[in-house]
Amino acid sequence: MSPGAGDRPTDAPPHAALRVPAPDDGTREVPWSERVALPDGTPVLMPNAAAWLAESAGEVDAELLALPYPTLCRLARVLPEIGAEVPLRTALREVLATHAPDGARLAVEAGCGVGPDLPALRAVADAVVAVDGGVANARVARALVRGEAVAGLARHEGRSFATGEDIVRAALDGVTVVVGNALELPLRDACADVALAANLVDSIRDPLRLIAELDRVLRPGGLLVLTSPFAWDDRITPPEAQLGGSTIPAFAAMGSEAALAAILRGETPWLSHLRYAILETRDVPWTLRDHARATSTYDVHLLVARKATATG
Ligand SMILES: C[S@@+](CC[C@H](N)C(=O)[O-])C[C@H]1O[C@@H](n2cnc3c(N)ncnc32)[C@H](O)[C@@H]1O
Prior knowledge:
Layout: E1 20-21, E2 29-30, E3 36-37, E4 43-44, H1 49-55, H2 57-60, H3 69-78, H4 87-99, E5 106-110, H5 118-124, E6 127-132, H6 135-145, E7 150-157, E8 160-167, E9 175-179, E10 192-198, H7 207-217, E11 218-228, H8 249-254, H9 256-264, E12 276-291, E13 294-307
Parallel strand pairs: 5-6, 5-10, 6-9, 10-11
Antiparallel strand pairs: 1-2, 3-4, 7-8, 11-13, 12-13
Helix pairs in contact: 4-5
Bound molecules: S-adenosylmethionine (SAM).
Residues 78, 111-113, 116, 131-134, 137, 181-183, 198-200, 203-204 line the site of S-adenosylmethionine.
C-alpha cells in the first residue's frame, strides 16, 4: 500500500446506486464531480467529509507503519485473515452462495473493514459497494480489490510491529470501496439485492439505526446477512443502545441473539415495520491475533434473513 505516492487515479464512473450526501443535510446530494476523495482516489461520501478527513488525518496518506498506533493494532488483527482459511469467512461464503437471490445485481457491505468478504459478495452479485468509516481500512480494502500488494503486518507487543510477506489477492472488478457512514449509507433506497454487515452491530454507536439503514437500501425480497460476537463496549455503543444485556429492559431480558431476530421480524416496539423471515442462524468461532502472546476468540452469531416482498 503506497497511497498518496502517485497522481489521483481516474476511477470508473460511479455505480448508479451511489450518492454524495450534501454537507448540510445527508438526505440530499451533490453532483458526483464534487465528491471529496482520498489521495488514492477512494471517494469519501459523507455529509461532513472534510471534517472526517481532518479527524482521520493520520490515516489519509501515511505509509502502513506510519499509521497511528490504534490503527496499526486493528490492522494487525485483521490482515492475516486475507487469503487464509477462516471458518467465519467460509461460513459467510456458504450462506451467501446458498441464499443470495439469483441474478443479484448489487451487494452492499456496511463496515467492510479491510474487505475479507468482498470476494464472496462479488461471487453472488454483478457489483459490490463496500462502505467503511475507517480511512485506513478503506485504503487497504481498495488496494486489495485492485490486486495491489499490502504489506503483511504483525504486532509483537506494545508498539512493536513488523511487516511481513506482502498480501496480494486477485483483483476484483465491479467492487467499489468508499469511505462512508453505515448509519447514513451513501446509497439510494432499495438499490441492493444483498446487504451484509459482518461484525458491525456491536461496533457501532446505534445498532438499531444501522439495521434501519440496511433495510432502507435493501430491496423487498433482498437478502440480509449479519454477524456479530455481541461484544458490547460502552465506549462504542452506549448501554442504552446495546441490544442484549442492555439497559433497555426488553432487550436485557431477551439477549442480543433473540433481540436481533425479534427486531427483524417486527416483533419489538423498535423498527416494528420490519418484516424479515429468518432463513438460518449459526454460531461460528472467530479468532484474531492480538500480539505475539495473545489471541481473542469470539463465538460469532451469524444470521441470514430475507426481507418480505409486498406480497409477503
Ligand atoms: C469489527 S470491524 C469488522 C470489519 C469487517 N466487516 C470484518 O468482519 O472483519 C468493524 C468495522 O466497522 C467500521 N465502522 C464502525 N463504525 C462505522 C460506521 N458508523 N460507518 C461505517 N463503518 C463503521 C470500522 O471502521 C471497522 O472496519
